[in-house]
Structure formats: C-alpha cells, structure tokens
Amino acid sequence: MHFPDQQQRAYRAWITVLVTLALAGAWCYLRQLNMGLGLTGLSRDVTWGLYIGQFTFADGLAASAAILVLLSAVHGSRSFRKLVLYGQILAIASAIACMLFVVADLGQPSLLWNVLLHPSPVSIMFWDVVVLAGYLAITALIVTVTINCERKDLPPPRWLRPVAVLSIPWAIGMQTVSAFLYCGLPGRSMWLSAILAPRFIVSAFASGTALLVLVLRFARVRLESETLRKARTLIAYTMALNLFFLLLEVFTTLYSRIPEPIDHYQASAPWIWISGTLAATSLALLNGFRRNERLLPVACAFTVASVWIEKGFALVPSGFVPSPLGVVTTYTPTVPEILIAAGIWAVSALIATLLFRTAFAVRSYNGEKPYLLSVEQEILIR
C-alpha cells in the first residue's frame, strides 16, 4: 500500500521516537544490571513499584482482546469482527510488555529460570508465567493464521475458531491469577479482597477497548458508526462496573473502621481520587458521545488514564505503605526506573506498530480501505 508523504514522515518520526526510548531504557537497564535494584526507588518495605504496576496494567490490556472474541465469535456481532485482529495484535504487544516488566523487576534475568527449572504447582507466580506464556502463544497463532488467510484471500480454517474461543477463558484466567498474586498475600490488607479479580477483569475490558479505539483513531483507521457506538457501550458498562467495585472497596474499608486497611487507603487516597474523577468524567463523556462523536477519543483517553493510575499507583505501591510493622516508607520512582519502564512500553508499541502496519497492508491489498483518508490523500494514493 502506498501512503502519502505526510503519513510516511509521521510514521518515520513515530518509529524514531520509539527506538530512542527503547535505547534509553536499554541503557538504564544495563546500569541496573550492574548496580542492582538500588538504582530504583524500591526498598526493603516497598518491594513492588512502577514495574509491577505497569505489569498489572499491561496484563489487563493483553486480556482485553477476549471481550472482542466473545462478542464476535461467540455472539456473532459483526460490528466487532473487524476489530478482533487488531485486538489480538494489541494483546501480543501487551503480553510481551508484561514479560519484560517482570524481567526488569527481578533485577537479574537469570532468576526467571528458577520458575522454569523448579516449577511449583502451589506457587501463584508459576501459574502466572504459565498462563501468560500460553496466552501469548494462542494470540500469536491466531494473528499469524488470520493474516496469512487474509493475504491469500481465503477463509480461516475451522480449527481456528476453537482456538479463538479458548482464548476467552484463558484471558479471564490470566487476570484471575494476576489478582491472586496480590490477594493471596497475608499481611497486605489492601489486597485481601474477594472482588479484586472481578475488578481486574472489568477494568481490563474497559481500558483495552478504549486503548484500541484510540490507536485506530490515531492511525486514522476507518471505523463504522455502529462499531463506535457498540464500543462506547462496552467501555461505558465495564467502566461503570469498575467504578462500582472501587466504591464497594472504599465503603467497606471506611465503614468497617479497621485500622490497617484505612492506613493503606489513606496512603493511596490522592491516586484514588484522581482515578475515580477520571472514571466519572469518562462515563459522562461516553454518555455525551451519543450527541457528539468527537467526545469518544477524549473519553477513551480518560478511561485508559483512570485504569493506568488505579493499577499502577493506587493499587501496587500503596499496598506496601504502611508495612505490616506500621513503618511508612515513601516510594518515588527514580529517573532510570521511569526510563526503563518507558523503554519497555516503547518496545511494545514498536511491535504493535509493525503488526498493525502489516494488517493494514494485507487488508488494503485485498481491496479494503482500512484508512479514513481525505479526498486529497485518496488522489495521491491513486
């Protein structure tokens, strides 16, 4: 597919930014290998911080493709059929980001071999590695077969549908296991909640779908009005459920007046207020989208930001403050720590960009027009 010069320049600039961030993150990670996790803001009391918070958020983005498969393959929704491939591409990039954040948090990559060489069925970490690697393999298989079939203008093989359906419970199980990493830890009262897994699942569906809409809008992909309306409805319902679950947690904590959970929520109060405000604003904007379609990207951006703050800052670091002994340790990510996280996201975005570009090119080769172009751009392409 031939792109206008303006789009080519924007694409090259985007790739340059991602490569620069990835190289900066790699350089900081080499420093971390030499100096250890002392290069970060982590400490004896706060052992999980920015890396694990980003892992939790990326894990939700990876699982979000399941809702598109559920609505398209199981319930036969034609509106989401074109989005399934894009959602699976986003899942691949997010799953790779998850693995990279785990490696960064371990300090020494060699420690990861302990999970593989000494598997323990009673270890939640072992099962988290299993479900994450399995989900990455499933989504990679679906994307590869789908792109090859579309390139040859052939229908997908029959055996691909059961594999796609399998990805739905696998994704839900992945989010459930990730939640068990937190709520299975004694002494961390902020995470001792039976609805932590449902919170992870609904927030994943909301943020993943919202981010996919933003990515496709940024790439100027042609989306039908019916698809946008159903995406808005999906984001609104799941975001409302996520906000409802969060309010349940806050009410239970404050009404019970148990000191330990209250201390944790006081430590994370600013982040909870910011996340909750963004969530409520996104719901209001999603409702206003019925009258003004321009509000959808803003609402999606607020949705992604709300879940990112909730999982990355309000949930993970605040669960360690105060410690079980009542010690309050302030955690602030260092510049190298932030650059490593940014580098990992850049690698993930680079993978997603290349895969999205391949999918666009294949669908354009088959006669589709995935891009929303102006009249002048259509003339240039021709």
Task: Chart the SSEs and their pairings.
Elements: H1 5-35, H2 50-63, H3 65-74, H4 81-106, H5 112-117, H6 124-151, H7 160-183, H8 196-218, H9 225-256, H10 259-267, H11 269-288, H12 295-315, H13 335-365, H14 375-381
Characterization of the model:
- This protein is an all-alpha fold and 382 residues long.
- It has 2 domains: 49-184 and 344-374, no CATH class; 186-212 and 225-331.
- The protein contains 14 helices and no strands.
- It has helices spanning 5-35, 50-63, 65-74, 81-106, 112-117, 124-151, 160-183, 196-218, 225-256, 259-267, 269-288, 295-315, 335-365, 375-381.
- Helix 2 packs across helix 8 (196-218) and helix 7 crosses helix 8 (196-218).
- The longest helix is centred in the middle third of the chain and has 32 residues, at 225-256.
- It is globular, with a radius of gyration of 21 Å.
- Residues 372-382 have low confidence and may be disordered.
